[in-house]
Amino acid sequence: MAKQSFSGSQAAQVVGITYRQLDYWARTNLIRPSLSDAKGSGSRRVYEYRDLLELKVIKQLLDAGIRLESVREVFNYLRSHVDTDIAAAHIVISGKAVVLCQGDQLVDVLRNGQGVLNVLPLANIKSDVDSMIVSLADKKSSKVVQGKTASRSQIVAI
Predict the structure, then answer these.
(1) How far apart are CA 75 and CA 57, in angstroms?
(2) Which of 9, 74, 92, 120 has the fewest CB atoms within 10 Å distance of its CB?
(3) What are phi and psi of 98, to 5 degrees?
(4) CA-CA distances (angstroms) from residue 114 to 81, 102, 104, 111, 128?
(5) What does pTM read for this prediction?
(6) Cβ atoms of residues 106 and 116 within 8 Å
(7) 8 A C-beta contact, residue 100 and residue 106
(8) Alpha carbon distances (Å) from 81 to 50, 60, 89, 123
């Protein structure tokens, strides 16, 4: 299956930037088109869907007040440290800081990947507590009550 392709003007329109911005970002190596780069007068850049996602992230960082030089640093870090689709990454912007959520860590991408906080994932806490309660109840149900093994309903009544 062929990848969907987008001309420079289509890419700019989809992302919500001017063609001039797109051209500048390509000429200064912020983002190069994946499918076909311009090779002189009359040639055209051709972008793929992933490029559009990256362009949109760049635009959102700029819209959030992050300087273009910092956006370059962010993307250099993301491209070398994020194995999945960049759009799947989670970025937190706080003032002029850009922090990447990587697993259970928050990494300041503008400070050479310095860890700033650890994240305590809470998603599994409920299931962990529930399974421990079931395990505890199973242990109690095998407890001998008056010489007999108690049923679950008897344990609840105790």
Answers:
(1) 9
(2) 120
(3) -120, 120
(4) 13, 12, 14, 6, 31
(5) 0.62
(6) yes
(7) yes
(8) 17, 20, 11, 24
- Span 21-54, pLDDT tens digits: 999 999 899 988 886 666 666 668 899 888 888 8
26 and 33 in contact (C-beta within 8 Å)?
yes
Cβ-proximal residues to 21 (8 Å cutoff; 6+ apart), any chain: 12
Q: How many CB atoms lie within 10 A of CB 98?
A: 23
Helix axes 49-63, 8-15, angle to 10 degrees: 50
Q: Classify 95 as helix, strand or coil.
A: coil
DSSP secondary structure of 22-85: HHHHHHTTS---SSB---STT---EEEHHHHHHHHHHHHHHHTT--HHHHHHHHHHHHHH--S-
Pairwise CA distance, residues 57 & 15, whole Å: 9
Condensed to tens digits (0 to 9), the pLDDT of residues 83-115 reads 776 766 777 777 777 888 766 667 787 776 555
Residue 123, SS3 per DSSP: coil
CA distance 158 to 148: 15
